[in-house]
Design brief:
single chain; 237 residues; alpha+beta; Jelly Rolls; Arc Repressor Mutant, subunit A; five-stranded antiparallel β-sheet; globular
C-alpha cells in the first residue's frame, strides 16, 4: 500500500524540485518555498497511483522510480500511452479545471512521488508564470509523442515500430558504453508490445532479428546494448 512519508523540507530524498523541468526557472530560495508545499508518497511495483476516470487533487512528480500511463481498450487490451520516470509529472489536467484522469497510472517498480495540492499549485502559477509555460511545453512534447505513435501504428512497418521505440528508449534511458548505447528498458517485452501496438511474440522476434544482424545485443530481459544506431535509424526512414 502507498503511504505519505513527509514534506520535502524534511525528507531524506533528493529535493525533487531541483530535478523537474517545470521548476527550472526558479532560484534556490524559490525552490525551497516550493518544497515546503510538497508531500511524498511511495508505491510498490504494481500499485495504481490513479485510475482512469478518477479526479486528482494534486500535481504528481516522479521523484524516484517509473510508472506507466495506460488505457484499457474496448476488447480488454492494455494500451500504454506514456512512461513517466524521474522528473516527469502528471495530474496537470485537473489543476486549473475539473477534469477526470484520461488514463490509469501504475508503478513499474518501487516509486516515490512528490505531490503539490491543487490550491497550492494555483498559487505557484500566479507567483511564477514560467511554471505554466514549462508545463505547456511538456504537454506539447507529449502530444507530439502520441501523434508519432499513431503514425507509427497506422502507417509504419513492424520493423519501423520496433526500431522507433528502441531509439526512443535510447534517447531517454540510454547511457554511453564502449560498444554503443546501453539501454535500461522501462518495459517488459509485453509492455513494449502494448506501447507500440504489436504482440509480444512479434516484438521478441524482431529484436532477435536485430541482434542477428549485429545492430543490437540483448542483455537479459531488461537491457539492450545498441551497437549500430545508424542502421537502426534506417529502419524507420
Amino acid at each position: 500500500m502507498n503511504k505519505t512519508i513527509c514534506g520535502c523540507n524534511k525528507c531524506n530524498h533528493k529535493l525533487c524540485t531541483q530535478r523537474v523541468s517545470i521548476f527550472s526557472s526558479l532560484n534556490i530560495e524559490q525552490l525551497e518555498k516550493v518544497g515546503e508545499l510538497i508531500n511524498h508518497k511511495e508505491y510498490k511495483k504494481g500499485d495504481l497511483l490513479i485510475m482512469e476516470g478518477e479526479s486528482s487533487e494534486s500535481l504528481v512528480i516522479i521523484n524516484e522510480g517509473q510508472v506507466k500511463a495506460f488505457k484499457t481498450t474496448q476488447d480488454g487490451r492494455e494500451q500504454i500511452l506514456y512512461i513517466f520516470s524521474e522528473g516527469d509529472f502528471f495530474g496537470e489536467r485537473n489543476l486549473l479545471r475539473d477534469f477526470a484522469s484520461p488514463y490509469s497510472v501504475e508503478a513499474l517498480e518501487e516509486t516515490h512521488v512528490c505531490l503539490i495540492h491543487k490550491s497550492d499549485f494555483q498559487i505557484l502559477v500566479k507567483s511564477f508564470p514560467d511554471i505554466a509555460v514549462k508545463i505547456m511545453e511538456e504537454l506539447c512534447q507529449r502530444l507530439d509523442r502520441l501523434e508519432h505513435a499513431l503514425e507509427t501504428m497506422g502507417a509504419r512497418t513492424v520493423e519501423a515500430r520496433v526500431s522507433s521505440v528502441i531509439l526512443e528508449f535510447a534517447e531517454k534511458y540510454g547511457k554511453e558504453h564502449p560498444k554503443g548505447i546501453l539501454i535500461e528498458l522501462p518495459l517488459s517485452r509485453e509492455g513494449i508490445a502494448n506501447y507500440i501496438g504489436l504482440t509480444r511474440e512479434t516484438v521478441s522476434r524482431k529484436m532477435s532479428l536485430l541482434q542477428s544482424e549485429g545492430i543490437l545485443e540483448m542483455i537479459g530481459n531488461k537491457k539492450i546494448l545498441l551497437l549500430d544506431r545508424v542502421a537502426l535509424e534506417k529502419n524507420i526512414e
